[in-house]
Amino acid sequence: MRVDCEECAGCCIDWRPVSPVSLDHERRGPRAPLDDTYNLVPLTRDEIRNFVDAGFGDVLTPRLWEAPPGEGVEIGGVEVAAIAGRPAFFVGMRKPPKPVGPFGLERTWLRSCAFLDPETLQCRIHDTDLYPDECAEYPGHNLVLEQKTECERVERQYGGERLLDGTPPEDQRGLLLGPHALGAKVFAHPDPERLTGVVERLRDRSLSPADRAEFVGVAVGSHPGSTDVDADRAREARKRALESESWAGSAVDAWRSLAGVVGDVARDAPNPDVVEVERGAPETPGWDAVRTDD
Predict the structure, then answer these.
(1) Is the separation of the CB atoms in 225 and 185 below 8 Å?
(2) 3-state secondary structure of 251
(3) For residue 95, which of 25, 19, 12 has the smallest C-alpha distance?
(4) What's the pLDDT score for residue 35?
(5) Which residues pair with 87 in a beta bridge?
(6) Could you report the average pLDDT of every consecutive run of 10 residues in the chain (294 residues)?
(7) Cβ atoms of 61 and 74 closer than 8 Å
(8) Domain ranges of the chain
(9) Taking the chain, what is the end-to-end CA distance rounded to the nearest angstrom?
(10) What is the 3-state secondary structure (H, E, C) of 107-166?
(11) How far apart are CA 149 and CA 56, in angstroms?
(12) Which end of the chain is more exposed for a tag (fewer CB within 10 A), N or C?
């Protein structure tokens, strides 16, 4: 499997505002996400714990799904997908609007991964222990499951070659399906009553730090293959996530306050280095360095 990611980042951004056609592959069927975040990367329990340990608990956010009437658990008048009567969720990385120029476009306000360098369109945690398996193996999971990749969607709309070799990798660590995902990538919240108001805030992008930390704690406290949650471990992870003050979390808040209308050209956007690097973000090498390495 080989891909050309230069000037793309299609899997790291929400490029629906600049797409000539509708992109709705995440919102089909009876299990539509309650949020409207595109390409939210699901993290494993161990990855979530590592983010918390590294002080990045403030960058994590949950995803829950709608359920048909009578098939889930009700929270705030909304039927939410559940496992054994417990709200099901996974945890991903927040996506604030950033001034990015993918596919040769001029800089535009598009929701982008918290760790994406808006200038180079490279990941600031690539080649670190925090880099998620889901990102490292993309689009391998899609290829194994015979699903369209974001690479192919970009090719179709903007031309060029992104998916250079469509042979799925043989060994993939992040592909967890069915029962194997329970407690390892898909989690079950033990107390729906603690989630009052969360659905509304999730839908209008106003989750509080306490909301996000609640789900992070449950995920870290979960047991693989089970809906059981270690209350002490969850409480400690929740506390540490709530206390996190990382450069990435600070930059998310800054971009949200600075951003123009999503989808608009970002001509007057501030220098990304001022917003991210000056807060402590590691710089990315640029594509010349990557080509030299190859």
Answers:
(1) no
(2) helix
(3) 12
(4) 93
(5) 82
(6) 89 94 66 90 96 98 94 93 95 98 96 98 96 89 80 91 81 63 94 93 95 98 95 98 98 97 95 96 90 60
(7) no
(8) 2-44+60-179+247-279
(9) 15
(10) CEEEEECCCECCCCCCECCCCCCCCCHHHHCCCHHHHHCCCCCHHHHHHHHHCCCCEEEC
(11) 28
(12) C
All residues at 6 or more sequence positions from 104 whose CB lies less than 8 Å from its CB, including other chains: 7, 158
Q: Dig out the tokens for 168 from the structure.
A: 């799925």
Cα diameter, the chain: 57
Q: Which residues 6+ apart lie within 8 Å of 242 measured at CB?
A: 57, 209, 210, 213
Which helix (H) or strand (E) segment holds residue 73: the answer is: strand 72-75
Q: How far is CA 7 from CA 3, 255, 271, in A?
A: 12, 21, 18
- Which residues, including other chains, have CB under 8 Å from residue 79's CB and lie 6 or more apart? 66, 67, 68, 69, 70, 71, 72, 73
What residue has token string 């540490």?
240
Task: Give the span between the Cα atoms of 178 and 186, in whole angstroms.
Answer: 9
Measured in degrees and rounded to the nearest 5, phi and psi for residue 249 equal -65, -40
Token pair for 258? 């600075």
Assess contact for 134 and 153: CB atoms under 8 A.
Answer: no
Is the full-model pTM beyond 0.70? yes
**222 burial class (0-12, 13-18, 19+ CB within 10 angstroms)?**
buried
Compute the distance between CA of residue 255 and CA of residue 259 in angstroms, rounded to an integer: 6
